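ARCHIVE RECORD
Type: protein–small molecule complex
Small molecule: nicotinamide-adenine-dinucleotide
Source of inputs: curated submission
Record status: active
Notes field left blank by submitter.
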Amino acid sequence: MTKEQASKLINDLRIKLNEWAKEYYVLDNPSIDDAEYDKAIHELIDLENQFPDLITPDSITQKVGGIVSDKFEKYTHKYPMLSLGDIFSWDEFLNFNKQVAKVTDTEDNEYTAELKIDGLSISLIYKDGILQNGVTRGDGKIGENVTNNVKTIKSIPLCIPSKDEIEIRGEVFLAKKEFAKINEERLLNGEQIFANPRNAAAGTLRQLDSKIVAERNLDAYLYYYFNETNPEETQIESINQIKKLGLKTNPETKICKTLDEVKAYIEYYTEKRNELDYEIDGIVFKLNDKNLQEEVGYTTKTPKWAIAYKFPAEVKQTKLLDIFPTV
Ligand code: NAD
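STRUCTURE (tokenized, with ligand):
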């Protein structure tokens, strides 16, 4: 392929992907499924890898996906809210681990294994024991201040037993049962139904009317912990600390001390994923030791010490979704 041909393809892919990202992140109304989006973005990454001088800082491959809506007050994140690199096979996990090993000097790395809940990121800022702000990821640097909506989520405490300035991050989601209930009600009211729990959760949290948010039982699992006064040394200690402060953490989280344990976790949840009460689209592996995390470092878009292992796409449209238009 010539550079001119690549440049045209790259341009076309960027236009398409930017349009889809807007539908997904701003309008909460995607027109294509995630597998198709992932295929296109990986085509773009491959082309950019072949022709690195065609990479521009504004390429969608260089940025965290979200766009900040004008509907909400803007909030500048103290620590960037990044995305995650993704992989689709065991061989790719081994490659990821080899990259980590270049820094840690061993391939026997300890990882936390966390289910990748299909919802949307939230950052909770507590000061003097009180929830001050709840903010979406937005473009990773600036998010939307959705504090009033976050305060309606029953599993997010308004007060915690610590006076430190603490930022806790995780995923807001809708359980499958709640999602079905909302769509049944929408059908009865003659409204368009939501395509999936992720869109329903994102559409709900970014609602202007907090009363509507309160009626839809959003839930949240938390997994990142920032406390400069009393920092934790490992990811698993962070999760335990979040739990101690009274927030919900996912009970399926485990420590994997060996590659065999990583593989077993992947196999187990690939099999079990449909039995969970909420949707997941993969598993996130994070290097457990936080000092090592910092040594391994970051790209502009993702931490290099974590990876999302994505499940193969499932064809699982319900009859309702086949028949009725979706939001
Ligand atoms: P991502 O959703 O693949 O991964 C990053 C996110 O994972 C984090 O922001 C966090 O919210 C979430 N997450 C869940 N559990 C986590 C855990 N335990 N630890 C850490 N993070 C956890 O990346 P992205 O950049 O937000 O979005 C890309 C995804 O969005 C792709 O899957 C893509 O298919 C989809 N997308 C789809 C469309 C479409 O039109 N269908 C458009 C844009 C993006």
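CURATOR ANNOTATION: The CA atoms of residues 135 and 146 lie 6 Å apart.
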